[in-house]
Design goal:
Layout: E1 3-5, H1 6-11, H2 16-25, E2 29-32, E3 35-37, H3 47-55, E4 60-61, H4 63-69, E5 80-85, E6 97-102, E7 111-114, E8 117-123, H5 125-134, H6 138-150, H7 156-163, H8 167-180
Parallel strand pairs: 4-8, 5-6
Antiparallel strand pairs: 1-3, 2-3, 4-5, 7-8
Length: 181
């Protein structure tokens, strides 16, 4: 991965002052407290997630950012939505990240490796739609569901299977699917 932490820099033989010198010279860019990338080496859309995953491997793209990733929304989020298991301390110093705490018992439901970035994780389209319903972003949820239903190979039964992990969402999703189908 193209992310450098102070810990990985130390393991590579770099001192902290050398890392800071690289930042001042523009060879590295700080994206979080103790987390750096080489400018232009990483897709800006995943840089905050890559930085967060370098510090907290459970970091997972979620909500609006995941809807955009799955092409289910045209919104341009001001910050990257990243989930960590509830009870995990959020890393400090990430300016363009909105942190979310998701329940540990359901954290891994729909969590998958991003194909172009094998060290990073995002929630599946189905899980992200369920989360939009679950968190009360209903306009966004309905629009995402409309786009998802039109997509090739998407299975309403898979969406409902995912929703069963979040029982309060099942009725709303089933009703929305009935209207769309």
């Amino acid at each position: 991965m193209s992310v450098l932490t102070l810990e990985s820099a130390r393991a590579a033989g770099l001192r902290k002052d050398e890392v800071y010198r690289l930042v001042r010279s523009g060879e590295l860019e700080r994206i979080g407290r103790g987390v750096y990338i080489r400018p232009g080496e990483l897709d800006p859309a995943v840089a905050p997630l890559a930085g967060a995953a370098a510090v907290k491997p459970a970091a997972t793209l979620c909500l609006t950012s995941a809807l955009v990733y799955h092409e289910l929304s045209d919104e341009i989020p001001l910050a990257t939505d990243i989930a960590l298991p509830r009870g995990t301390r959020f890393p400090a110093g990430f300016e363009y990240v909105t942190w979310h705490a998701f329940g540990q018992e359901t954290f891994d439901v729909g969590r998958a490796v991003m194909p172009k970035h094998p060290d990073l994780h995002a929630y599946s389209a189905e899980r992200t739609i369920v989360d939009a319903f679950r968190t009360g972003h209903l306009d966004q949820a309905h629009e995402a569901l409309r786009r998802w239903v039109r997509g090739w190979g998407n299975s309403p039964s898979e969406l409902l299977r995912t929703a069963k992990h979040f029982p309060r969402t099942v009725a709303a999703i089933r009703q929305a699917l009935q209207v769309l189908l």
